[in-house]
Specification:
With 168 residues, the chain is an alpha/beta fold. It is built from 5 helices and 10 strands. It has one domain: 3-Layer(aba) Sandwich (Rossmann fold).
C-alpha cells in the first residue's frame, strides 16, 4: 500500500476519533495522522494518498483548523494524488447544511488534477441539503456522531473497502 496521510480538523474530538479509527482500519505502517492545524506543504508533497476529514460547524462552516490548512493545501501540486474525504455533521439539528464542510473542501480542490475516490450514496441518510452532494452522492463518507453514531463503524468499513483498491 502507498503512503497515506489522514489530515483532519477536530474541535470536540469526534473527527479525531474517526481519523484514528480509519487509520486502525487501514492497518498500515504507512498511514500518518496529521492535524490540519499542523499541516505543512512537505506533508502534502510526501504522501501520494490523502484522506481529508472535517466536521461542519454552525450553519455549514468549515472546522476552524482548516481555515489555515486549506490555503496550504490549495498551493500544493495535487495532480496525480488520490484523495478521499470524510465529513462529520448533525443531520438532526442541521439537516439543511449536513456535512457542508466536506463539500467546501471538495470545491476548493476539485480542479487540481487529483483523483477523487470514496463517494457514497445518499440513500441511507436523512437530511434536507448538503454542499457535499455531487451527482446524488456524497463526495466522501458522511458521518453523524450526534444522531447516528451506531452507524459509523459500518459506514467506515464499507467506505474503506471502496477506497482501498485505489490506494494500492
Amino acid at each position: 500500500m502507498k503512503k497515506i496521510a489522514i489530515i483532519y480538523g477536530s474541535t470536540t474530538g469526534n473527527t479525531e476519533t474517526v481519523a484514528k479509527s480509519i487509520a486502525e482500519k487501514l492497518s498500515s505502517e504507512d498511514v500518518q495522522l496529521i492535524e490540519a492545524s499542523n499541516l505543512k506543504v512537505e506533508d502534502v508533497e510526501t504522501f501520494p494518498n490523502l484522506i481529508l476529514g472535517t466536521s461542519t460547524w454552525g450553519l455549514g462552516d468549515l472546522q476552524d483548523d482548516w481555515e489555515t490548512a486549506l490555503p496550504i493545501l490549495k498551493k500544493c501540486d495535487l495532480s496525480g494524488k488520490t484523495i478521499a474525504f470524510f465529513g462529520l455533521g448533525d443531520s438532526g439539528s442541521y439537516s439543511d447544511t449536513f456535512v457542508d464542510a466536506m463539500g467546501t473542501l471538495y470545491e476548493a480542490i476539485k480542479n487540481t488534477g487529483c483523483t477523487f475516490v470514496g463517494k457514497t450514496s445518499v440513500k441511507d441518510y436523512q437530511f434536507d441539503a448538503s454542499k457535499a452532494v455531487v451527482d446524488d452522492c456524497f463526495v466522501g463518507v458522511a458521518l453523524d456522531e450526534d444522531s447516528e453514531s451506531n452507524l459509523t463503524n459500518n459506514r467506515l468499513e464499507q467506505w474503506i473497502a471502496n477506497i482501498l483498491p485505489h490506494l494500492q
